[in-house]
Amino acid sequence: MxxxxxxxxxxxxxxxxLVLVSGLVLPQRGREIVGKMSVLALLLVLIYTIFRxxxxxxxFGGIYLVDSYGSFFKILFLLAALLVMLSTGKYIExxxxxxSEFYALMIFATLxxxxxxxxxxxxxxxxxxxxMTVSFYILTAYLLNDERSAEAGLKYLILGAVSxxxxxxxxxxxxxxxxxxxxxxxAAKINTQPALIAGIVMLLxxxxxxxxxxxxxxxxxxxxxxAPIPVTTYLxxxxxxxxxxxxxxxxxxxxxxxxxxxxxxxxxxxxLTIIIGNLIALTQKDVKRLLAYSSIAQAGYILAxxxxxxxxxxxxxLFYAMLYVFSNTGAFAVATAVEVxxxxxxxxxxxxxxxxxxxxxxxxxxxMLSLAGIPPLAGFAGKFYLFSGAVQSGYLWLAxxxxxxxxxxxYYYLQVAKVMYIGEEAKPNEKMEVGGxxxxxxxxxxxxxIFLGVYPAPLSNLAQTAIQLFM
Amino acid sequence: MNHMPILSLTLFIPVIGAIIIMALPKDQEKAxxxxxxxxxxxxxALSLLVFITYDRSTGxxxxxxxxxxxxxxxxxxxxxxxxxxxxxLLLTNLxxxxxxxxxxxxxxxxxxxxxxxxxLITGVMGTxxxxxxxxxxxxxxxxxxxxxxxxIMWGSTKRVTKEYAGMKLTIYLxxxxxxxxxGLIALFVTAQGMLGYPTxxxxxxxxxxFPVGFQIFVYALMAFGFGTLLSMFPFHxxxxxxxxxxxxxxxxxxxxxxxxxxxxxxxxxGLFILPAGAKFIAPIIAVLAIGNVVYAAFICLSQKDLKYxxxxxxxxxxxxxxxGIAALNVISINGxxxxxxxxxxxxxxxxxxIGNLYEKSHTRxxxxxxxxxxxxxxxxxxFMLAGLASLGLPGTVNFIxxxxxxxxxxxxxxxxxxxxxxxxxxxAVYILRTMADLLYGPRKEQWDHLQDLKxxxxxxxxxxxxxxxxGGIFPSLVMDPISSGVSGLLxxxxxxxxxxxx
Lengths: 471, 502
Description:
The complex is a heterodimer of chains A (471) and B (502).
Chain A: H1 7-25, H2 28-51, E1 57-59, E2 64-66, H3 68-88, H4 99-118, H5 122-140, H6 147-178, H7 183-189, H8 194-210, H9 219-226, H10 229-254, H11 263-281, H12 287-308, H13 311-342, H14 353-356, H15 358-372, H16 378-392, H17 396-422, H18 436-454, H19 457-466
Helix pairs in contact in A: 1-2, 1-4, 2-3, 2-4, 3-4, 3-10, 3-13, 3-18, 3-19, 4-5, 4-10, 5-6, 5-10, 6-7, 6-8, 6-9, 7-10, 8-10, 9-10, 9-12, 10-12, 10-13, 11-12, 11-17, 12-13, 12-16, 12-17, 13-15, 13-16, 13-18, 13-19, 15-17, 15-18, 16-17, 16-18
Chain B: H1 6-23, H2 29-53, E1 62-70, E2 75-81, H3 85-102, H4 110-129, H5 133-142, H6 144-154, H7 162-195, H8 202-206, H9 212-229, H10 238-245, H11 248-273, H12 275-301, H13 306-327, H14 330-361, H15 372-375, H16 377-390, H17 397-410, H18 414-439, H19 458-473, H20 476-496
Antiparallel strand pairs in B: 1-2
Helix pairs in contact in B: 1-2, 1-4, 2-3, 2-4, 3-4, 3-11, 3-14, 3-19, 4-5, 4-6, 4-11, 6-7, 7-9, 7-10, 9-11, 9-12, 10-11, 10-13, 11-12, 11-13, 11-14, 12-13, 12-18, 13-14, 13-17, 13-18, 14-16, 14-17, 14-19, 14-20, 16-18, 16-19, 17-19
């Protein structure tokens, strides 16, 4: 075993610990640079991981796997973490004295996600999941003098713990029937019986909570609204992608369709998620909540790719998860800037953004339209993969629901665009100041969203390589 | 032919213009307008060049460009024009160029306006030159969002608010396109299953012999999607409200060319790829088309707002196009394409005149006016030209279109054709009455301050008026390529389907 192949994980852990320690030992002035240093360090790790994309190795009897599939998600998490850290901007002022812990927790959450994506064993998945979730429990409640933040943290803790328990119960049932927790070995040792189905359902319920699929989505809006926006962003982008990474690996490898056809169950879940997420989003007046419901709907679209369980569908899952990083982070970055400026994310505080800062309004509009799946933006290419997969597997009705609902979603996205461009301005003719770094992050999100939409080939090739192990 | 990617140039010069405009400072309004005018002019000149140098003796797809784009979906960036798409490309650029001049008096947010307008023009052009289904669809949806923004920012609120109009238009078109996209994905997946490799090439897809039931299903989805865009009865409600709320340039482009994407799609994609489906659904389309022609014409009779009159009248005229498409023979489809071209120039001219009048008088109510020919003789010429073309007067290009459609359709749908011909009479009634109320009669003092068209305002009248008359007097200029395109298309279907259908 070549442990150097674990360099990404090891480096991330070391960076996290260093950041944590530097917050304790460095004087106040020195701590200012901690944020910059962690961004730089993660960037280097990201570059290193990209070069190690094609490496394959299995560790400790298959309980930890380094492969293209895992690497794809590692790249995704690092990219998301970087974009979130960059787009935080002035928001960090709200917890300046604890900023190094903030970065440390973000990095630990990232590490947890990486472990989930690479885990070859159900227990390892759980380990990564808890590392990620515990970091998020703290991060969600990070605004100490904000009641909503504390409430969100507590809610997330309780509900998260319950969902973890349900998932563990499912894992234990599967272990009881197969005698192993190694994902690659389960398939050969199980046969269909009620206990197995119960196990699968519970496992799914646990993951459905993480990816906020209906009917396990109730937590998402409150927590997204209460948490500090950068945390919300990372929760929506990273935590969801990590959930999908593990879900896809477990379902595709450990639970072969020939044993038990779980696609219909997932299809119903996906359809409900798409419909309910979009319909509730229609009535939202707070942009954070609106994006929360929209991200529930997005989870439904991605789930449709797993329902398909074929090359297009799985490629769609990976493709969509990646573009979601750009589009969703872009939208949230604008919301962050607006909250810093106006103190609220109510839709009325976006009024006149088109005049106050044309860049922000453009980023918001384009990122949201990408989420709605309007070409030539990335979301369209992603949905095309997802629903081509679904149709290929015979789920035409799911494609119908998904595509029609995504057009309906344009309504609420355009409501925001409308307010930005023709709304009565709260602060007329006052330019909005956004820091250069946050601006840079927004440009990346904007260009990424457009580029992946116009020329999806490079990313779809990467995704193609990553899903080889399921084919 | 030559190696210059002339279609790509035509397509992307407005985008380059838009990028330059984005980089300019806000207050450079003159420069912004000149760049827009220049880039649309270059596109117009290039599309004229395409129109002239297109080799009519060989026919078929020409000026082909193809670059593999997304391999695993079989998508390539493929462009080309044949006799059907060429007149529509020309039409787009005629209207695009005129629309820039019709917006010459825009004062607010000039930069954003022209950026969006140029993107919109590119989107529309793209649908006509794309020979790949994926690229086609991409361009098709690109147009929807700029239109929404243009309507809500520069539209006018009269009978309905501009926000309402913009959203209604957007949601109608997007829901239609969702059905279309389902059909498209189903088509793609099934073709991949039958061919063994993925492709989005329209010609290759047309070569696949899809099962009849599947063809009917997908064609129905397309008829819904494209039908909504073409304002097919009963999915037409967006059209009059949308036009009424939209700024002049958007009304021109929307009524002039964007709607035609629906008709073009039904022919190029629906009929070409799914002939058996087309044959099955055609009678339903023909019956719905009567709703367009007659019902919308009756609504026109009771309208007072100029934009609503032209809006409903365009719904009514699209009925002719639908009948032409539904009759499924070379003559009727020739007529349909010709009618699309003709209606495009006519509607654009109409909307540009209305826009000009509204800009100066701030009202569009016919009853407020009278005797405008006294104060604004040039505007009156524009209105009369558009009006007479609208009622299909011989000598205008619209006559050729309507006549050909009915010649072609009469042999297939006798009853439908006879009922639809009454539409011509109704059109004459409401158009002539409107023109009389608006332009003739005693001079009204209150409008003495109105200035006649001058300078840049003349451009739409000259460009579009010329197109109406030249097309009407020398119809073969446009009709020959259309005819070669349509017969080429139908011949291909014939050989593929072993002559079972045509």
